[in-house]
């Protein structure tokens, strides 16, 4: 069986070199390149790695944004975010951009190796420490997006209510798709349904109608 091809992107040389050393000691891993920022990580993707270990925060271009760009061009590459700590916002944004999960930098070597292999089988890697913050964030978004009962008279579904709230806040379709973990096409379909229920034809008219009902 061929060795798993891995690229590592982290702006801290000690972390980057440490991961490279650990992984190169494994017979079934082959580190094919390293990067110190998100822009370099995008270039590394051209080498066709199986997995990229991507630091969340890096100069020039963040790991989260680099992940989005790489997954658009190379959907077959698995990307695992590297971080010293996790929070709900980081996790949800990275996953919505195509990441396969997170690895904590202070994990033991065995756990890191196992997590990388598990990611290649499709298992999402989410540290337990992030679970509670994700739950709280989802609860907060749910309450925020559904708070306005004045819109109930339009007969909006729960999802349409969420999208209506984001429209009023000025988010575009691509941003709404990332926040709600939907495809842009699905968001467009919901938006069209929303327009019909509001009896409007354009995004501007929809926003005005919704704001006037506050």
Automatic annotation (TrEMBL):
Highest taxon above the source species: Bacteria
SMART domains: HTH_LUXR (SM00421), REC (SM00448)
PTM-bearing positions, type 4-aspartylphosphate: 55
SUPFAM superfamilies reported for this sequence: CheY-like
Keyword Ribonucleoprotein: no
Keywords assigned by UniProt, alphabetized: DNA-binding, Phosphoprotein, Transcription, Transcription regulation
Entries under Pfam families matching the protein: GerE, Response_reg
Keyword Phosphoprotein: yes
Segments forming domain HTH luxR-type: 149-214
Example GO molecular function: DNA binding
Protein name, UniProt field: DNA-binding response regulator
Regions annotated as coiled coil: none
GO biological process: phosphorelay signal transduction system; regulation of DNA-templated transcription
Residue span(s) of domain Response regulatory: 5-120
